[in-house]
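Q: Predict the assembly, please.
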Amino acid sequence: MILAGMRLRGAINGLRRAPARVTVGVLLLSGVFVGVLTMTRRGVRFLDAFPGIGGIAGAVEQRSLEALFTVLMVAVAFSVLTGAVATLYGSEDLPFLLSLPVNPVRVFSLKVVETYITSALLPALFTIPVLVGLGVEKHAPAGYYLIAVAALLALYALPVALGAAAALLLMRVAPAGRAKEVATAASVAIAAGLVVGMRALRPERLRHLTPAQFEQALTRFADLHVGWLPSAWGSDAVWRALRGHVSVAALVLAVVSVAVLAGVARIAALAYRAGWFRSLDARGGRGVVGVLPAALWERPLARLGPAGGVVVKDLRLLARDPSQWSQLLVLLALAGVYFISTASLATEVQRFRDVVGALNLIFLGFLLGGVGIRTTFPLVSLEGEGLWLLRTGPLRARHIVAAKFYGALPVMVALGGGLGVAVAGRLGVSPVLALATPLAGACAGVAVTGLGVGLGAAFPRFDAASPSEIPLSLGGLIYMALSLAYAVVTTLLFAYPTYRSLRAPGTFQWGSAEGLALLAAVLMVTVLWTLVPLAFGSARLARFESGIG
Amino acid sequence: MIVVDSVVKTYGRVRAVDDVSFTVPRGRVVALLGPNGAGKSTTIKAITGLLRPTAGRVSVGGFDLERAPLRAKALLGYVPDRPYLYQKLTGRELLRFLGRLRRVKDAERKAEAWLERFGLQRSANELIETYSHGMRQKLTFAAALLHQPQALVIDEPMVGLDPRAARDVRALMRSSADEGGAVLLTTHSMDVAEAVADAVLLLDHGRLKAMGSMAELRQRVGRREASLEAIFLQLTEEAGSQTRQDGAAA
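A: Predicted assembly structure:
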């Protein structure tokens, strides 16, 4: 209790120091709470009143809750792996806590609770308004809310325990000192694979079912057999609580959850020492002696001066840091989902192809915006505490920002342009759009790089624990808004030639005066979206003072 | 070589550095001393361009850090108290990167020379994340000296160094000054300051309380045989009493 009290006090003190951030966080959470609550209530009302659904409405709702539990449990399981390695082995306070005259099992119980909070808090906060909405709509007794929240907390304890156990196993089998990297890479690869896999199932095929087939599918979905999946126990416990009953499943869930968490804490206390020795073994190094010259690939970049040197350094760090290169897997997954989704819209009718192709321009912009938030926006912040090396050198802030921009630009332009070519080819759009799509992709690549690097420099987070945390800021929100705005503006510009080619095919030419004027407009917008954020970011970074050196 | 002129740095209502002026001439080692929170690191960061003074000027080699930051920084070498180095680079790669950043001629040869001098050649191909604290400190020195700076600014130089490396660093600071460079160091080790510094600056509560050679400081406290530690304690105690009296009067 003393240990937990100490951690709680630390957390409260941290919150007191940033009242503005706490206020914004509370407001955001309240907004999400109200939004999810309202949507749940409307959803339940809609299902209950849906004509023809009859007696299976409740079963469909219960199954939907079970599906929600399953999805969020999977999300917790994926996020917990890296968090558990960091908390159970990498916490800075761990050596201090273990030096105290306290049973190590208690210390690791605290660490397991910390792992639980960091991994499951957000999914729990998202699920609670769903349960409250359900309770309100079904006029549940007061005890329901207590049982439902307890069932929820017990449910998320299972993936936390599973992830923590996997982390302990990883510490035993992963290359010494590399468990965190392996965990990060594995989590991202599995998550990215799942997203692409689920998209490849093409759920839109459900649209082609006949009403009879759809009803059959719905009945199968609503078949209420409480299986062995904990999410089924959870939804069963919630549903019985709605009627004022405490189910056996709820009790089993609670007992199992507490038992597995306690078990993991006990195992962690035993396994810590072995993992510690393995990490010491890793300090042996790679054993390569002698002067290793600069690699061939870095020599031309190095000739570009200090900016080239920064690019070489960034590429080396990217290749060696799984928390960085795993972001590229996310990028590939997004690109895969986008291509599969767009390709499924291919049709025989040329005019419809062009309409889809024109709409695709905005999706391409959105996609690149989404990619940029994970790749270009964090670039300056990734310098982290190493920024002092750049800032004390003969380098202006704008040189740092430019180096980051030039480093990311080829990748983003190749991605945007390449996807543009691939999608235009797959859809079989008319020649006007066949040029517009890759051009829009390449221009979006440039703009998103400028916007991401510039706003990332203006709103840096040098203290972020991982690259995925960096965009969670005001700068990240502004970036998303402006990248969406760019996609809308350029799509509107490309709408005219699309309209012309639909109305009178063959009358619009990119080489004509109006075509060139449109191209100039697109280029101007792109230059504006690129240079203004870069200049803004450079100016803000030049004034940045805290947390360096 | 390093001129700090009426520098003020405020954080909100707190004056971390309050109208501080001093000079570190060529050929001299100057120690900047003071209790915790005296404003030493803030002063150092203002000199290295990591912080912008609220008022006042800093120049290095005649180049104003605000107006000609690149020329001023080109003359500076800096060793911070907690040097963060890119963990996923090797020691050799870090020096190569800094050589490119500072456009150092013949950087490869110079880097090898520094690696050898600090005994890091055998581990130069290992990732920095595998280095001990002392090895990182040595690598930071190599990084700061790679471009042969004319002014060296060192924040707590001896932290984590083994006795041999500590001795080497002391000799290095001395030789750097003897070759015409200017060295400014902050330290809590009075022995180090007394051994290598030609002059001492005493900072307390953001203000410069005393400056001069050991002889001048001894004269000021009126004790001929006083050690630097005794002088430090006496002057900071006087300053503390004065602050308490001012507080009581207010």
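Chain A touches chain B at residues 282-286, 288-294, 302, 305-306, 308-310, 312-313, 316-317, 320-321, 384-386, 388-396, 543, 545, 548-549 (CB under 8 Å). The mean pLDDT of chain A is 80.
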